[in-house]
Amino acid sequence: MIRQAVYHKSDVPFAYPLNKDELHIVLRTASSDMKKCYIFYRDRYDWMGKFKVKEMFLTQSNDLFDYYETTLKLNKKFVYFFYLISKMNEKVFYTESGFYTKRPEKSFHGFFQFPYICDMDVFFAPKWTSDCIVYQIFPIFWRRYSRDY
Fold first, then answer.
1. For residues 133 and 101, what is the distance between their CA atoms, to the nearest angstrom?
2. How many Cα atoms are found within 13 Å in the side-chain-facing hemisphere of 114?
3. What number of other Cβ atoms are within 10 A of residue 36's Cβ?
4. Which residue in 43, 64, 51 sits closest to 113, CA to CA?
5. Which end of the chain, N or C, is more open, meaning fewer C-beta atoms within 10 Å of its C-beta?
6. What predicted TM-score, i.e. pTM, was given to this entire model?
7. Bridge partner list, 34
8. Where are the beta strands (DSSP E) in 44-134?
9. What is the pLDDT of residues 111-143, one digit of tens each?
């Protein structure tokens, strides 16, 4: 496993809300390096709750990286970490603090966190835009430079 290529942060474009209860997650890995990627997640404030597990799916690839994505459905508050299985059968847990061979403890130290989905952070397109073509015109102003020698 090429650990230097594994990357995620709890911010756009790697984590963003789709609506008030859904969070879209993206994980970057080295190209053709992973066999399976899973995400463990739960409500950040439910101390007695158990982690749910969801498989992530390869959605994009290029020469250097693969991008795995999934959507988590919960109630606005998320804490999560990843479980990665490489093609060489190396198994690791990936948290904000780094890589571990054993599953992280139940405390939230080092886990990725999306503490709250604010309604203002969710993008909603106005209804009138669904049947329209919208043009954005950006005029470029050229300035002539005179050279005085």
1. 51
2. 29
3. 14
4. 43
5. C
6. 0.81
7. 86
8. 52-61, 65-73, 78-86, 91-95, 98-100, 112-114
9. 999 888 887 888 777 888 778 887 878 776 655
